[in-house]
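This part of the workshop introduces the protein records we will be handling. Getting from the letters to the tokens is the skill we practise here. The record below serves as our worked example for the rest of this section.

…
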Amino acid sequence: MKTLEDINKLPDEDLVKAIVTTNNTLLFEILYDRYSGLVYNKCYGFAKDEDEAKDLTQDVFLKLFVKLASFKGKSKFSTWLYAFTYNHCVNYVTRNTAKKFEKQSVDYKDVENLSAEDEDDDSFLSMKVDKLKVALELISPEEKMILLLKYQDFLSIKEIESVLGIGESAVKMRIKRAKDKLRTVYNANMT
């Protein structure tokens, strides 16, 4: 029998296996303690206020307890949890605003133009924070999500591939399109 101290030291993946095997809510509390602050911060990025962010955080963890067995260990648990949280928040925002967004298909001839991606990062990263926050609220939740994954959470293209379940070229194209849209909205709001 492991002590509480031993259990607290378990890597995330082992803790998840133990929770799934035993359905032990006390073990789940350890996972909650590890990640509730992170999940809250992600939810707050989508929510309009602290109470809404707290409600979203609770919703994420309730759903997480039920869906935990679907974690297959193909990525780090924290990366999987990011995706889980972002998907929940995107669905919440989409549901509440009654907007339906069409999935954008990748035009593979545009992929050749992605080498300029790093060059336009400089202008993208120099936007004024207050105007950027406004612009982020005006783009779709999907566009906001991929930009936050890349520029706030500093996930690599490979990690974003894993989170979204899409290929490298699709990730790069979605980032490019989201940056272009954000830049357009940002520039329209600067005047």
